[in-house]
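Exercise 3.2. Students should predict the tertiary structure of the chain below and write it as structure tokens, then compare their answer with the key that follows.

Predict this chain's 3D structure.
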Amino acid sequence: MLNILPLLLIIFPVLSQLILGTFSIYKPVSLKFKIVSWINFILQIVFSFTAFNIADYNLRKQYEPYPVRCGMPLVGIAAACFFLLFILILIIVIQFVVKRWRTKRNMI
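Answer key:
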């Protein structure tokens, strides 16, 4: 379970932004878009650090008898965290533009 957990942790905020962000655009009474976006942004940063630490723990346990180990998997996790943070920001911007377009269209 600890092998797949870092990937699940860094994907969770992006998926929740897609689902809850879209829900807050079409049903704005229950969830506010700004709150959903901030929560997912903060969760992405927190889960990135957590995923990196879990991956480091997994690698330490895997290479316990040998003190020298490769750090490339950690670089991959860090790159995936930055990439998914960029994707999350892109999704938030697109959803914000759609929300503004819908409110402007409803005003006319």
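Discussion points: The CA atoms of residues 68 and 108 lie 66 Å apart. Residues 72-107 form the longest helix (36 residues).
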